[in-house]
Amino acid sequence: xxxxxxxxxxxxxxxxxxxxxxxxxxxxxxxxxxxxxxxxxxxxxxxxxxxxxxxxxxxxxxxxxxxxxxxxxxxxxxxxxxxxxxxxxxxxxxxxxxxxxxxxxxxxxxxxxxxxxxxxxxxxxxxxxxxxxxxxxxxxxxxxxxxxxxxxxxxxxxxxxxxxxxxxxxxxxxxxxxxxxxxxxxxxxxxxxxxxxxxxxxxxxxxxxxxxxxxxxxxxxxxxxxxxx
Length: 229
Prior knowledge:
Layout: E1 2-4, E2 7-9, H1 23-41, H2 45-52, H3 56-60, H4 77-98, H5 100-121, H6 134-150, H7 155-172, H8 174-177, H9 183-200, H10 208-228
Antiparallel strand pairs: 1-2
């Protein structure tokens, strides 16, 4: 591991166990896989969708938590495989770089802003249930893109840009291949992650981890407020 600026970057070629020191990443993956198995093979899919999917008319009536809870649900095996692969590739490196709780705040804030974008750009009256962790994962793309842009004149920075470009290309195609996956949520999550990454890159001092958490929480609250007004 080496430190660049205020962020600790894990080289993409590191041979250490990918998930070591990344409990939040492993927890999010376990939750998503658990809900998928229970939904597909335990007969609970309808219950999960009815109560946890983003259904915009329900959000409009005040059920704001629905902009976050779709991260637990996925529409198909292909959907969850794509998302969990991307989370497995990016999550541990970011989590080890910024800390577990800042990572959690980033993930949820990106999910929330992605949900808000899907609410407004997808139509507040649209009854189509939206599921998937894609908005949150695009937040990871966003913060990774921010880091790479700051280091674009270095060999490592250019390698980061190539990696993020490849992952973005694959995940950008998902809404065209899988039903009920929102490109609006992808866009919102990407913007949120990039903005948080830019703010994080300017933070310094002994309380930097707490400031990172506050940043993520503030963005998540902004997402909630935006769908309640």
